[in-house]
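Hey,
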Amino acid sequence: MKNVKHIGIIGVLVGMVLSKVLGSYFGNDSRIILMLFAMMCVFVVIICLALKKSYSAAIIFFILLLPLIIGFLGMYLNNSYLSSGGLILFFVVSLIILKYLNKKNKSV
C-alpha cells in the first residue's frame, strides 16, 4: 500500500510540473493538451486490461473514462457547465463503482 501512495504523490508532482511547463509554453490551451494526454493514458490502460482478458476491470475503467471525456469536451468548447458536470459525474460514478466493488468483495 505504501508503494501506491508514493506513486500517487509522484504522479501529482509530475502533473504539476508538466502543467506549469506546458502552461508557460502553450498558455491556456495547455489544459486541453494535458486532459487529452490523461485520457489517452487511461485508454491505453483499458486496452492493456482487455488484452490481458480482465474484462470487468476494463469496463470499470471505461465507465470512469466517460466523465473525463465530458470534462474534456467542456474544456475544449470553453463551457464551464460541461466541465463541472464532468467533474461531478466523475465523483458520482466513482462512488457507485466503490459501492459495487465493496459489495462484490463481500460476496466473494
